[in-house]
Amino acid sequence: MTALTTDNLIIDIPGRAPGSPLNLEVQPGQVWGVLGPNGVGKTTLLHTLAGLRAPHRGEVLLDGRALGSLKRKSVSQQLGLVFQDRQDGFPATVLETALIGRHPWLSSWQMESGEDIAIAERALQALDVGHLRDRLVSTLSGGERQRVAIATLMTQAPDIWLLDEPSNHLDLHHQVAVMRLLSGHAEAGRAVFMCLHDLNLAARWCDHLLLMYPSGEACWGPAREMLVPSALESLYNQTLMTVEVDGAPVFVPVRS
Amino acid sequence: MRIRKAVISLLASLFLVPGGLSAAQVCSEDALDRNVCLPEPAERVVSLSPGATELLFSAGAGDSVVAVSAWSDYPPPAAELPQVGDSNRLDLEAIVSLKPDLVVAWIDGNSRAQLDRLAKLGVPVFWLAPREFEDIARAVESLGRLTGHTPVAERAAAEFRQGISTLQATYRDSASVRVFYQVWDQPLMTINGDELISKAIALCGGTNVFADLPRLVPRISVETVLATEPEVIVTAGRGDSDRGWLASWQRFPSVTAVARDNLYLVSPSLLQRPTFRMLEGARELCGILEQARARL
Amino acid sequence: MPVSDLFRPLAALALVALAAMLVSVSVGSADLGIGDTLSVLVGGGSELHRTLILDLRLPRTLSAFATGGLLAVAGALMQVLLRNPLADPYVLGLSGGAAVGALLAMLAGAAGFLISGSAFAGAMLATLLVFGLAHGSGSWTPSRLLLTGVVVAAGWGAMITLILAMSPASRLPGMLYWLMGDLSHAGQPWPGLAVLVLVCLLVFPLGRSLNVLARGSLQAAALGVSVRSLEWLIYLVASLLTATAVTMAGAVGFVGLVVPHMLRLALGNDQRMILPACALAGGTLLVLADTLARVVIAPEQLPVGVITALIGVPTFLYLLYRSR
After folding, report:
1. Whole-prediction pTM value?
2. Would the CB atoms of B213 and C300 count as touching at under 8 Å?
3. Do C52 and B226 touch (CB under 8 A)?
4. CATH number of B15-153: 3.90.930.12, 3.40.50.1980, 3.90.1140.10, 3.40.50.2300?
């Protein structure tokens, strides 16, 4: 299983002063949450970690090897990403969409085999969209599309899962189901690294957190140490009340 | 006294002035069936098509032509004259500023709407549309009358008529040959029976294989040409550069024209414009068909 | 997708294509029955019939097939490249460049090979121009490419008008027929057919990458596709296809737009299916359109581009209307 580390990484956000360097170590079995207000660069960070954007400075390393020195194909076997928004200019069925996750594992001349289809179907079942298999993606609801996207990542089955707001559009039940699925995969030895805007979801399911401040500062570490009310209040510029439920802290914004 | 004087001058104006005009006035009917009258023979003529230019020179009015349209290349002095634009894109301003007393237009090339504006400005426009050999002769006579060269024009017209009827008499009883006349190669185009070239072919005792098509210059396929089984193929390429037009027919030896080597190249300059040069072109064509007959 | 799923629709399309070609070689202004046609095709028939079918109709039919196939495949590739199902092979100004090349050659009095060569050069020049301009300072997106191409195409359009305005009347019919797309002077069909077959073989291994690219360049990159080089490859291949087609038959419109679009509605968007299907269906469409062009007002001929536009415009509007 692969570890994702960053070496003095500064992400490149055009028109913004460089933030503080990140030295993250995302190990197999960990579930990371990235928290921060809108526009702080969470999506840019994910894209940089996936090698889709050049960093401003520093490096991203997969098992100690610089991302830039690896072939895109082998990167995509170790690391996958669920995007926040998706293009579907062309019609495609749910199964076809999930099947593109097999792309990194097939050679140019190979057609998808029955086994690949079985992998994709299992992923769709796991995300509770198996029954939509032959529907066109463009006819699905936002939550269903989100789950198809996660199923595509599951079909890709990389060691490191990057997810940009995976709980978007999901109803409460499916939010919990997706989080449970993600932490299940982490327990099986994968690393999960996701941006979240729901503080409580992060508090509940993540074991590590990265807080990104509008000033460009960032801090990270085990969730217990990061879930300090004062740090979170300054993160969102919002006064919070903390209550403890079921052994975990719950943060509630103060009225007025 | 005053009244008397006024009456006399009125009478004088009634009798003298129109009488004075009528001495020099010239009239002729044009192709739009309008009687075009000029107060006196035109001395500044603008020709709006290469064909009209040739006819004006044939009528002896070459010296009166002050400007021509583009591509007016015959007779050679015409090519030296100032130009007033392409026949379908004329420079009206240039025409008006030349102060012409006659403009000669061509029904197939010039725009009616544009020249009607010219007529509104008081410039007389004479339209030509020769469809028969006789029309060519008459056009020259009309232009001669309007420019004050009647004797020259009538002599030239008579010569032309004589030439045509001689050809007609010579080939009236000749054996008919089937002729395909190629106007252009890409796209492949020919002429129907209404085109003067086709009439020249008929004059020489030939039959245009596409005489019955509805359009004047129809576009056809190679296959259609083969199916009509021409005995002679005449192409109007421009000199040696278009020998390839003939060569491309060599691929079809099953066609009589190819089998008998009846493939000819004529210069389109003699035939493409309905002018007196057509007589020369027709003589060349008749010679070709006579040669072709001998090979059949 | 298993190979067997590919086979059936493609085999059906291939049969339709063969039938269309058979119709095309049996129909013409000279009256030959299907019996005469078949006897020529198996090596018999009179000399005239052999000439008509083997020297005239068959090369023209094959040229029509190659042209249609090339344009449809090029259209499908351009659509993936621009992530826009409404793109066509000419959207980036390639036909304009080819037209300017061909018309200049015609204006100079060239014929035959010189016209096609000049058209091909114009098409490649247009490709490189858009390639260079869109590359610009380095940032490159489909929308930037599209915008560059559309503006360059408008420039070509102006040059075409200028050339037409400056040309003597005797050259205009040839120029107009070229601009509308016309197969009567397509030379040998073999280069076009060879390019078509080669490209279909080449794009098959690229097919899955193209499928992924159709989902967006970021998604494709995340799945291990080298997006930038794949995009340039598609652009160059599509340009080469279009240039070959335009060289054979002038700017035939609508095949490259309508055929991929219709096939996607019927067969989905797997490029490994769509691209060969485009080659077959595009070829079939143009063979049929050209047959119509030859017989509608026979013995006179229409340029095939008129027919494809007359078929293409209403079909396309209908599809748009239905697709909401």
Report:
1. 0.84
2. yes
3. yes
4. 3.40.50.1980
